Amino acid sequence: MSRVELILSEPHLAWVHLDDGEVVVRGDADTLPERDTERVRVFVPAVDDVILSPVDLAELPPAQARAAARLAVVDESLILSDDLHVVCSEDGLTAASVSRTGVAQWIAGFDPDVILPAPLLMPRADEAVQTAHLGALQLVRSPMFAGGWDDVITPLMIGDAPVQALTAAEFDAAMAAAAINPEMNLRQGEFERRTRLTLDGTLLRKIGWLIVALMVITLLIPLVTMIRLNTQSDTLEATARTAAQTVVGANVPEDQALTQLDARLAALRGGGAGFANTSAAVNLAVQATPNVELTMMTFTPDGLLRASIRATKPEEIDAVAARMRALGLEVESEPLNPAQDQPIAELKVRGR
Question: Does residue 105 register a pLDDT over 80?
């Protein structure tokens, strides 16, 4: 359902309420009602306040059409260029020039959604000239002219074109159609109406519930993550106990299987740093020292590794021991044992 409020400033301020294209009530300036937010308010300024000019800018985008229309009318307009507001119609065939000051006053006084020049209340005719009465004022519109009737100028503008006078009912219908789908709106550019965001109680409650829902979800995410990680941890621990039980034996209780498996691994590893780590460090020190070779190596459960080292001279044995100490090993060297002119030393090595 389309609901429109027309405010007419010519010849005397009046207003018309239209519902679905039909006039339902009229009034004058003394009875102008408060603005109804459910109705589109259309203000129709006085005919002399807006100058309409024919143009041909249908092929241009709206922004370029406005610029081109301004250039087309600025030289002929009586309004100072600094105060000139130019708008092009939707079809690009009509340009309107009006005082910026005037538009600002209309907006301050009525705050309309649409400002529509009075002659555009009538439809565009291809050939015929249409006239209608708006109160005591006679409007006229032809393909090349739109404005108020003047006994001298208008006949010269329309020539021999046929004249069609609209009845009151026909003009009401045309006025309703123009108000619902205005051919032009002077509220453009700097005067474009800004939409105000209004929040009713229902919308505020919905926003509040959305905020609460987001807060709950935010709190639930880490909680769900923690529960999931705990569940996975319990699953992994149960799997580890089952695997340990298969190694240590099914007769060992499941809760003791991991402890016994750790004990077995410690025994295999040996004391100190363990056999693997200690022997690796010894081999690394030997390989890094020229003319030195490892002839024997033994390891005891208490973490002591005995290594027999053969070299060409005692200094090389000392170099090996120094490299082992640099790798974090504790080294004790027993007296050298010469063999075939090559000294052999036995080193006692412990990892930390």
Answer: yes
